[in-house]
Amino acid sequence: MAESRQIAVMDLYKTYFLDGIEVAAVQGVSFEISRGEFTAILGASGSGKSTLMNILGCLDRPTAGVYMLEGVDVARLSRDEMARIRNEKIGFVFQGFNLLPRTTALENAELPLYYKDGILAKEREMLAREALRAVGLVERERHYPGQLSGGEQQRVAIARALVNNPSIVLADEPTGNLDSKTGREIIEIFQDLNVKLKKTVIFVTHDQDIACFARRQVWLKDGVIIKDSTGVL
Amino acid sequence: MKVTVGLRISCRALLRNKIRSLLTMLGIIIGVSAVITMIGIGQGARESIKDKIASLGTNMLLVQSGSLTRGGIRGGWGSINTLVPEDVSAIIEKCPSVVLAAPVVRTTAQVVYGNLNWSTRITGTSPDYLTIRQWPIVSGKSFTDADVRYSTKVAVIGKTVAENLFPQMPSIGEIIRIKRVPFKVIGLLEEKGQSAMGTDQDDVILVPLTTARKRLLGKHSVLKQINVSAGNEALMIRAQEEITLLLRERHRIHSGKKDDFIIKNMADIQDAAASSMKTMTIVLASIASVSLVVGGIGIMNIMLVSVTERTREIGIRMAVGARTRDILFQFLIESLVLCSAGGILGILLGISVSEVMSIFAGWSSVVSVQSIVLSFCFALVIGIVFGLYPARKASMLNPIEALKYE
Hints:
With 233 residues, chain A is α/β, with parallel strands linked by helices. Chain A contains seven helices and ten strands. Chain A is globular. Chain B has two domains: 182 residues, no CATH class; 179 residues, no CATH class. In chain B, the strands form two sheets. A six-stranded mixed barrel of chain B has the order 4-5-10-7-9-8. In chain B, strands 2-3 form a two-stranded antiparallel ribbon. The two termini of chain B are 27 Å apart. The chains are: A alpha/beta (233), B alpha+beta (406).
């Protein structure tokens, strides 16, 4: 069913230049992800998993190949159309949290709504508070990132990813900067998002213990998929 | 992104670096206040010169004796005395655009009262002179046509003369001696101050024309000039033409020959002086606006630093959906906020500096609404022009690279 194939990647390549040296990060990757799937992308560092994630998150364009997101060919979109997709359809969580410093948790969670038209300040605040409540941080909404622990900061980042109610949540090594206990708590939140809110969740990790939370595991090595535990290969 | 949101983000970013924002604004503050002050001083000077020339009487024409050329050496206007008292009565009779005309003879003389003496200008004229010059008497009275007819030895004195001959005492009714001829002081002129050319207009004694000619200058002395008042400003050109025709005829100047007199138009002099002051104002304002441009470069500099510093922030904003124009606006608004805040402070500073200057330096300064609007708009334009490049640079960043930036 075409409807269920939310993400379809066909023969994707990404080559970039680093100090004049050509780096082939992704070399012909194809897979499909259905609505509501919970997928982990695994691989050693340098396997191209972050590059793939950036493309999936519409932060970067593939050098060659097709990336269809809900039936739209992303490679053909303009810069601003990609920004709109990032704003409305995708929530992205980074390894390094990427919160705005000297800005409260609530305002950080509000951030995507600043770039959405037709939202009142009151609504914005209400939605952000709701998102913070969903990650269990509503009582710390006035705190600045510097006053929060790593796990709490990552929860604010998740709240920010959720605030615009996207259908897809992407996370690039969301537990990479956290200890294993906190990492487990964070990944449980992603599990919740997938189970309770029916979000499509894709996360990148190199940690097997974390990856086993996902129902599907895609292994990358040197820019190609070497194993897809449930998908077709 | 709404403007209000952009404003809030910008204000917060600027308040985070208070000292830096203030220093950046300083360029704009100084620029705007310099423009306002300079325009103020220029306009003030223009007004005061205009007023001073207007104090000579705006409907006034000055007819002066011609120049003398003898052996190839040209003497300049007034070097030959071609005007005679009969010219005056002819002008009044035959020129319909002329309302009043007063002959003027001048000399400098030592004036004595008691044990005080003072050298001053003596002007022999008719009572109409004061009307043409719009010069009232503050105490006593003016001499009359009868005084002119009978060559009465009466004098109307200026304020400077009064101060020097009659310190702290009334002068009316006293007898002064001009070139040993006794004159009775009958009136005191209102203070007129310096002329546009810097001479003290109050350092003068007015006496009847006939008295001056008979007693002080010699019977056949000719006129230095004739002061003429046209009906109104619109009639001045016609009056000038009528007088020229009449005097050429009376002085028997053949066509093709040059006039032996010159007619000066006060309105022309006023316009010329005002327009030269306008030029000066423009020059001053241009110099001041250079500092505004320099201030703009300061803004650009800081905005570039700010963009670099906040590369990561820009990356985060882009990652959550900020479009190119959202980032562009954010930084453009920031630059505009800097410039308008600097502009407002600059306006306040400019007004106070102008005030202080007019109080302490005695320069008249006119702060006009136009100069305020002009300099403020200029500051805003500077904000846009110099903010655009950094803002564009920020908006064109690659989100991935921006996020990786340390």
